[in-house]
Amino acid sequence: MRKIGEVAHLLGISTHTLRYYEKEKIMIPDRDESGDRRYSDSHIQWLRFVIKLKETQMPISKIKKYASLFLEGEHTASARLSLLEDHKHYIEQQIKTLIDVDGMLERKIVAYKDFISKTEQPKHR
Description:
This protein is mainly alpha-helical.
C-alpha cells in the first residue's frame, strides 16, 4: 500500500488530482487506521487507465460514468462496453485526422525546403 504522495510521484500527477478523483468518485482509496489514504496495486492500475482515458480526451463526465457503472456491478458490463467502444471510435477518428494533417504538413515542409534551397544564392569568394 502506498501513500498519496508516492502514488502522485509514481504516476506523474498531483496529489490534488488524486483528491479530485476521489471527490468525484472516480477512484476511492483505502484508508489506514489514521485515516490517511492508501493505494493498492489495483488502485494504481485503475489510475493508469484513467490517466490514459484523459490523455485521449475522454471527458471527466464519461470517466465518472464508467467508474459509476463499474461500481454498480457486473450487470452494467454492456453499458461499460458501449462507453469504451464509443471512445475507441473517437480515438480512431482522431488518428485518421492526425495522419491526414501529418501528410499535409509533410508536403508543406518539403515545398518550403525546396523553395528555400532554390532561392538561396551560393556565396562566391
